[in-house]
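Reply to thread "Modeling small-molecule complexes from scratch"

Following up on the discussion above, here's a worked example others can learn from. I took a protein sequence and the SMILES for S-adenosylmethionine and predicted the complex. Inputs first:
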Amino acid sequence: MSATTVHDRVLDLLRDPPAAPDTSAGYLDLLDPEEERAPSLAQSVMESTFLPQIYEKVWRPIGFNIAKGWPIGPGTAAEQAMTRAWLGLGRPGAADRPAATVLDVACGPGNVTRALAAGVGDGGLVVGVDASATMLGRAVADTSGPEVRPEVRYVRGDAVDLPFRDAAFDAVCCFGALYLFDDPWRAVDSMTRVLKPGGRLTVLTSRRLGLPASRAGVALLRRATGYTVFGDREVTRALTERGYTRVKQRRYPLMQAVGGTLPPR
Ligand SMILES: C[S@@+](CC[C@H](N)C(=O)[O-])C[C@H]1O[C@@H](n2cnc3c(N)ncnc32)[C@H](O)[C@@H]1O
């Protein structure tokens, strides 16, 4: 598949395709510099030039694996295998991988995006969307070469108000980011809107310890940094309220994975 065809396929997925698409940085940039708001402290770190350089190999495995309770909890490879299974994708290299259209929300440097791509067969497309130009720069640099099949493309856009049309994707994934959004539930609405009937959503996010003092601490943390910590039932309830079925959850010490399926029409 030629690069032009893949870019065309991404444009076809957009709610409001630009007349003159800007792909000069290797990703489709849909954010208007005039409309950019001051980021929270947590998001400022994501937009630095330093973090994308160490994110995938150092920050992500150390931070996330500790939060998931490694070595008892899953390491990165086990997390990726579970994600592909929950999203209905195939095993890397398997002949029966689906030609699915998948969205990775808040893709950062593309680490999860590439893991999803390994579970998609010929004709599939995995789109990573993120607001950070430095993260996307790294994602583009690290997603090249003939081994990346099927095609992966990146879009600079807002996860809370996704730029894609309704029912555009077979599967949507949002890892390590729901806690950074100013309005996480609007983001879940947006992810639900872009999923096809019968499509699957999986989220990996923060988890609050059940300690008496933790509610006050969590509120303070959110005010100071913009980081939200979710209770055990908040994310599962959000999916159930939006009509998801087969809602499942894995709880780790400081994180939770939640998945669900939209009913077929
Ligand atoms: C910790 S990284 C997660 C990367 C990857 N998904 C993972 O699981 O390792 C969080 C990402 O969320 C992005 N992000 C935060 N708020 C966003 C928003 N409103 N729209 C798009 N991306 C956002 C940040 O730019 C950052 O790249």
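What I'd highlight from this example: The domain at 3-31+38-261 is CATH 3.40.50.150 (Rossmann fold). The pocket of S-adenosylmethionine is lined by residues 43, 46, 60, 106-108, 111-112, 130-132, 135, 158-160, 175-177, 180-181 (CB under 6 Å). Questions welcome below.
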